[in-house]
Amino acid sequence: MTTQVRAPTVPIYLAGEFVEGGSTLDVRNPATGELVATTFQADRRELEEAARAAVQGFQKTRRLASYERRDALAHVAQRITQDADELAELLTRESGKPIKDARAEIARGALTFRTAAEEALRITGEWLPLDWNAANRGRSGIVRRYPIGPVAGISPFNFPLNLAAHKVAPAIAAGCSIVLKPPSKDPLVMLRVARYLDETDLPPGAVSVLPMDRETGDLLVADDRFKLLSFTGSPSVGWKMKAEAGRKKVVLELGGNAGAIVDETADLAWAVDRLAFGSFAYAGQVCISVQRIYVVDAIYDRFAEAFVERVRQTRIGDPLDPATDMGPMVDEKAVRRTDEWVREALDAGASALIGGEPDGLFYPPTVLVDVPREARVCGEEVFAPVVNLFRVPDFAAGVRDINDSQFGLQCGIFTNDLERTLHAHDELEVGGVIVNDVPTWRIDPMPYGGVKDSGLGREGLRYSIEDMTELRLLAFARPL
């Protein structure tokens, strides 16, 4: 007789204490339905306690020395690296992300905390000469950065460690306290990181990690005790939060329908391989997943044939199998929406070069052609393993078509022509242009964010720290 292992109960992290409060929250593996663990969703009482502690804790965090902030962050980075295999398996089980992608996310999470530790030592200011006319002779100034105050962070399900780390790590580096709302679908990996934070000398109230429902999260957004809101998620939710955030500073890292351009000078095999990865990694549930590919006419037919053949090689299955390329989508609602949008495009005249029927939470990699520009699968954020392929007469036409969107997060261009590269940098209405790689590529220290409906502000450790600090001038008059 086999003995069933009971799923653990995981407490939430409230201002330096691990507590069991609010309502219970079952976290299930989307690939199997297995109960991974039971944790809790904070209610109004826990949120109020966390907010008060964050305000009190800020009076201590803002006075921490640079080395104290560095040491806390470096400890978390070291512990993530030490427990990398265990954390990757946990992340896969709670999110359905293939294990090889989960391992990459764990490594990035360690890099994010490690980079924040380094940046904690580099929060500098400047000396200003203010004697610009005779009346101000002998005057000068010093500008310093001071932590803005308690931070409210809200992170999404698709990168449950690293996108949360991009809120917690710069807040600690800047000397801010933070209350983080991790995703309710997969909060366990950040609750494990909370244990690493608890091992440091950070003061009580410096960090709270509290899953909560939407209603409680709305209270977090509107609370004036928080001086900055950092949100990563869907555009519709993000812009609504900005309207409700009051006077606090708001940083939004939202979604898009990221595009790529391939011209006749590109390395075709490399472009095909990278675009297949960028279109279907984590079942397309990435805000910079490739959704639109514009290929110049001269190589379109060769590209399309090679691309479809490469997509056929995508292995779908058990996320814990290291050979799996693509696992399940997050829930049934996401599968239904994706299938509805694809069928809508097909009914409007599009064709599928490769696709198929959904199987439970698994949606097949789908490549569409002749998609009407007004179809939702093209013009809105599909957030699914679906990509649209377009033929364009030349590179400049691809740039114009990329810009014909309400979004502007990142764009990938595959070209070895310098003038076209510079043209893309000048003309593309996006937050970042990635040359000879997919828009899905990101390294965590870089400035990352979008324009138009794709967001407001930039993430990346130094850039987040700048948002989480305020400039303060000290001006001197030297009597002469």
Can you characterise this structure?
The chain has 480 residues and is an alpha/beta fold. The chain folds into 2 domains: 12-254 and 457-472, Aldehyde Dehydrogenase, Chain A, domain 1, CATH 3.40.605.10; 259-443, Aldehyde Dehydrogenase, Chain A, domain 2. The protein has helices spanning 44-61, 66-82, 84-95, 99-119, 162-174, 188-198, 214-222, 235-244, 268-280, 300-312, 332-347, 376-379, 395-403, 418-427, 461-467; strands at residues 12-14, 17-19, 23-28, 35-41, 126-129, 139-147, 151-154, 178-181, 207-209, 228-232, 249-253, 259-262, 292-296, 351-354, 366-369, 386-392, 407-408, 410-414, 432-435, 451-452, 455-456, 469-477. The strands form 6 sheets. A 7-stranded mixed β-sheet has the order 14-15-16-13-12-18-19, sandwiched between helices. The chain has a 6-stranded mixed β-sheet with strand order 9-8-7-10-11-21, with helices on both faces. It has a 3-stranded antiparallel β-sheet with strand order 5-6-22. α2 (66-82) runs antiparallel to α4. The longest helix is centred in the N-terminal third of the chain and has 21 residues, at 99-119. The N and C termini lie far apart (92 Å). The mean pLDDT is 97.
Tell me the strand percentage band. 15-25%
Could you say which overall geometry the principal axes of the C-alpha atoms support?
globular
CATH class of the largest domain: Alpha Beta
Q: Main beta sheet, described?
A: 7 strands, mixed
- Structural class by SSE content: alpha/beta
> Which residue ranges are poorly predicted, with pLDDT under 50 across at least 5 consecutive positions?
none
Query: What's the count of strands?
Result: 22
Radius of gyration: 24 Å
Mean pLDDT comes to 97
Helix share, percent: 25-40%
Name the CATH superfamily assignment of the largest domain: Aldehyde Dehydrogenase, Chain A, domain 1
Distance between the termini: 92 Å
Give the number of helices: 15
Strand order of the largest sheet: 14-15-16-13-12-18-19
Number of domains: 2
CATH fold-level topology of the largest domain = Aldehyde Dehydrogenase, Chain A, domain 1
* CATH A-level architecture of the largest domain: 3-Layer(aba) Sandwich
